Amino acid sequence: MSKIVVGITQGDTNGIGYEVIIKTLSDARVLEMCTPVVYGSSKAFGFYRKQIPETENINTNVVASARDAHPKRVNIVNCVDDNAQISPGHLTKSGSQAAITALKCAVGEMKKGYIDVLVTAPFNKRAVSDETFRFPGHTEYLVSEFGAKDGLMFLCSDKMRVGVATNHLAISKVSAAITEERILSKLRLMNESLKRDFGVVKPKLAVLGLNPHSGDRGLLGDEEIKVIIPAIEKANKENILAFGPFSPDGFFSINMQYRFDAVLAMYHDQGLIPFKSLAFDSGVNYTAGLPIVRTSPDHGTAFDLAGENKANPQSMLSAIYMAVDIYRNRKRYDQMNADPVKEETEA
């Protein structure tokens, strides 16, 4: 059986992307499990590898495409200009543009079936938000590229999973964006992902409130009464085991998250601050709802650590492991739930 081909995008050239990628791929277990293909620059890869002495013996293979990947080496697709300046720790236009170039190249190859899963190193969202990339982040871009109806930013670790109803959105716009249909859509995605991607038979979902103390029965806001509770009730009617809304301030402090298979937060920081506080080193950002598998480490570019050989690769390693596990889980789930009558008719 052929190994799963993992496409890895370099992220911002000047961030910690290459460092965590190189450290991760120096782990022999990764090459035993999958065939890695890095989308970026062999020159940049070599530059950062010299900063990490213990990884100098990595066997690399420069290829024109993932379809030519060597199964026992770290493959590099040179899609970024080798003449681009490398300035660790500095936010530059070329470094940001390289991240987008690598991402678009990997997505193109995934559409052709050359890679099985996608793992993305981080880029600076403000820096890439220009006329060539009109998306606030990877999640929104991938939802658009693969024609998904919706996507869920799903932060996952071994013990905890947290999704968000609104992704990269200003706080001033969150309340208006919290609608019954949006919450219901995210709960559907979360429920289906837990069953298909993570092997949970009957997922139990916790829903957080938007306001302090979940609105305190309307005293501190009425979104819970008018929007969130009706959405939960509709989800229950669809046999989705959703509970809440729970007061956001006390939920994580008393470890309620471990009583559920996943938690739906209303906005970015409400979910990501507690998640990263509890699982920063091993957390993974997964995009649920896509027809393809995409994961990412849950940290940013960390320009302050770039080029210092101080970045922890554990989140990148976890992102690769999770992508492979989800790919296998999906295949198993789809085979178990295939309609034999339909398949026989199609044959």
From TrEMBL:
Record has Ribosomal protein as a keyword: no
Pfam families attached to this UniProt entry: PdxA
Gene Ontology MF terms: 4-hydroxythreonine-4-phosphate dehydrogenase activity; metal ion binding; NAD binding
Keyword Protein transport part of the UniProt annotation: no
InterPro entries for this protein: PdxA_fam
Protein EC: 1.1.1.262
Key words, A-Z: Metal-binding, NAD, Oxidoreductase
UniProt xrefs under NCBIfam families: pdxA
PANTHER family: 4-HYDROXYTHREONINE-4-PHOSPHATE DEHYDROGENASE, D-THREONATE 4-PHOSPHATE DEHYDROGENASE
Protein name in UniProt: 4-hydroxythreonine-4-phosphate dehydrogenase PdxA
Species classification: Bacteria, Pseudomonadati, Bacteroidota, Bacteroidia, Bacteroidales
